[in-house]
Amino acid sequence: MSRALELAHNGPATGINPRVGCVIIAADGSVVAEGWHRGVGTAHAEVDALSKLPHGGARGTTAVVTLEPCNHTGHTGPCSVALIEAGVARVVYAVSDPGHASGGGAARLRAAGVDVISGVLADAVDDFLDDWLTAARLGRPHVTVKWASSLDGRIAAADGTSQWITGTAARQRVHEQREGSDAILVGTGTVLADDPSLTARGDGGELLAAQPTPVIVGTRSIPSDAAVFRHPRRPILIATHDVADVLRDLRARGFRRAYVEGGPTLVSAFVAAGLVDEYLIYLAPSLIGGDKLALGDIGVATIGEQRRLDIVSVEQLGADLLVTARPRRAPASTVKEGV
């Protein structure tokens, strides 16, 4: 399964399909084929691996795959059927497919007499597939919110200037994160105030190979000569203040990963609505003061309502810190005592 997970990393990180790896093992324990999914319309990992074997070469083997084999016909046929028809004797997978249409492959395999084992390295694969699983389970893109601020939480000086709070290493990391996202979201206020290009760029200012689609949220008009209209991808304008509607729109377009850069009005709306899956908070070793805060009202009226986060990692980038955090999940059962 560790090898299957390595193979899964070869697949595209954006788009609606998951990254999946598969290893096929003979009865003597030797690896006879490997495969991974290369994106929409291409063979799924199991079929990719099977295609590397001669006719009948998979009979009696074990297929180890990171995600439960699919059970539906989309751009390609169901992998569960392909495994059955190839004569695979056992299927081992890590994480169940939560899709209403695509799930159920394990049950189909068992009904055909295939031995099925699930949950192998499930935590590692679940973490790897976090963005895709969020989209599949919740019907919306995985949402990452990013901001850069001083240590006292300010994103700009009193006169509105904000370039640059963080240093070059932190800013380059942001561009790499943009490149790994389907969409980059800002509000109309940010476009009007800062005129950002919203591109993903390299150290020398060159455009990176993959570019996120810019999404402008809000009801104010944007000048036709705004920099965002020179983006390699056509911007999407969504005239609403309802961020849940925004995510439904993006999901319908096939977007899996949404990168929310701001400003504070849009970021606060996502936080208040409980629609953030990951926080990327860049902290510069400086103090600014004033009222230009990274977040506005997020619905916290009393300290007991504060939104708790779990720190995933803290990384130093030049003089700055990158804090990666996720919303704290409530335990299945909670005992309130002395709180």
From TrEMBL:
The residue ranges of the CMP/dCMP-type deaminase domain are 1-116
Cofactor dependence = Zn(2+)
Annotated residues for binding of substrate: 162, 178, 198, 201, 261
Q: In the UniProt record, does the keyword DNA repair occur? A: no
E.C. code: 3.5.4.26, 1.1.1.193
- The residues listed in the UniProt record as binding Zn(2+), with positions renumbered to this chain, are 44, 70, 79
Q: Which family does it belong to?
A: In the N-terminal section; belongs to the cytidine and deoxycytidylate deaminase family. In the C-terminal section; belongs to the HTP reductase family.
The record's function comment reads: Converts 2,5-diamino-6-(ribosylamino)-4(3h)-pyrimidinone 5'-phosphate into 5-amino-6-(ribosylamino)-2,4(1h,3h)-pyrimidinedione 5'-phosphate.
Protein name per its UniProtKB record: Riboflavin biosynthesis protein RibD
Q: Which gene encodes it?
A: ribD
